[in-house]
Amino acid sequence: MKTVEQTRSRTVTILWIFTATIAVVGHGWPIQAAEKPNIIFFIADDVSQEDFGCYGHPSIKTPNVDALAASGMRFENAYLTTSSCSPSRCSIITGRYPHNTGAPELHVKLPDTQIRFPELLRKAGYHTVLSGKNHMFGNQDRAFDKISDGGGPGKEQDWVGLVRDRPKDKPFFFWFASTDAHRDWRINNDAPTYNNDNIVVPPFLVDTDVTREDLTGYYHEVSRFDHHVGLVTAELKKQGVLDDTVIVIAADNGRPFPRCKSRLYDSGIKTPWIVHYPRVVQSSTVSKSLISAIDLSATCLELAGVEQPACVQGQSFLPILKDPKAEVRQLIFSEHNWHVYKNHERMVRFGDFVFIKNNYADQPNLCYESDTKFPAGEELWKAHAAGKTTPQQQQVFANPCPEEELFKLSEDPNQLTNLVFDPEHAKQLDQARRMLGYWTEQTGDTIPDNPTPNRHAPPRIEDGKIIPAGKGNARSSRSQMPGEAKNATKINDPGPIRLQD
């Protein structure tokens, strides 16, 4: 006859086996249901995908990010939903397209009605912290136990302390948001400095000493972001929790130079995306599968065992972490709305092709901050005024802009040759138009009848001279925003995920 203690022990054992079995069957990977991984999301500011060593940059030193990639998974085809600071961050934290968040334009606060996925983690018992650049809401928010300015030139100074002093009885989620590499440059001893000989000048910029000097500051700040990623990683290792922590490396938009930040070319919209999580990714792996930044929300919620709300439009990329050849989406959609100047561009990536539709083709497609205000942009405008720009550099100044652009990435990685009028690619053009049309309708995207006006008159060339941008306010009056006419903030449809006939 069994004792009470023997019966209790047998019952506990059965319950443990049952719980573990649910975890294996439900997720397809061996992790107990009671275990919730820690999560750290590192987001750089104005950094293009190609500007890390692990993505092939020959000069910029990023040993810490490279090390995480060397023992984790590096995504070749990760895309943002917009290449503009605050709309991108609001999109990531909600798992929704910008026009569905209610904050699709620069400097628009995320509405309180929008669910932030860290708030769901917090309700599930996570200790949640945002440190560094916020640009989404105020210094208090229901999603986070603590919001910190970060400190230091890149707002990364308190990251290690936050990890060290966290509650040890809870899983944690840290949103570590650097201001590196946002202008103006602030050089310190946390990262190497670069000279003009180390610089790789992209073909759409003018190769001058001034441009190269401007890029040296950018390189330094990318390396400083890497330095602080390394400090946090070392602290996790010291605490013995590195292997229990999901680390994701990303950026909010492309580098702050002409034809990058705010644009829908890969230099502006493609993000670094590195995931380090030894429980699932056990060796160095590269995935070419398409993912969107809005997929972070669904993935973190699934990893934490938290039910995904209907409002999340992203798709979990956990299947890709288990198999780098897995496919969770065949389509990527991105948008470009007001960022100092009026804009309404839309992009779809499918297979080897990118299609861009410009709904305000009657004006130059500019981003004041990167195109004219700083040295590399000023050099480009000087060359333009003197009639010395190459065809690759002249695209920035197109007015009117092409209404449609189609690029084949394997043959044209810088997206400089428009194939819209090439009959050989008529099938792909038709596919792109249809997919973008479906997404527009299903997600409630609209072109405003009364859009937010330009903050100020854009610069122009008259008689070979640069007429600088006019004076303007920090934020001009807002009229109708994309999606507003269809009440898109209430729409949860993710749009097409796979190619359709």
The CATH homologous superfamily of the largest domain is termed: Alkaline Phosphatase, subunit A
Give the overall shape: globular
Mean pLDDT: 91
Report how far apart the termini are: 68 Å
Low-confidence stretches: 1-34
Please supply descriptive tags for the structure shown above.
single chain, 501 residues, alpha/beta, Alkaline Phosphatase, subunit A, 2 domains, 8-stranded mixed β-sheet, 4-stranded antiparallel β-sheet, 15% strand, globular, disordered N terminus
Compact description:
With 501 residues, this protein is α/β, with parallel strands linked by helices. The chain has two domains: 34-330, Alkaline Phosphatase, subunit A (3-Layer(aba) Sandwich); 335-490, no CATH class.
Describe the protein's architecture and organization.
The protein has 14 helices and 14 strands. The chain is α/β, with parallel strands linked by helices and 501 residues long. It folds into two domains: 34-330, Alkaline Phosphatase, subunit A; 335-490, no CATH class. Strand 10 and strand 11 (353-358) form a beta hairpin. Helix 5 runs parallel beside helix 9 (295-303). It is globular. The chain starts with a helix and ends in a 34-residue tail after the last strand. The relative contact order is 0.15.
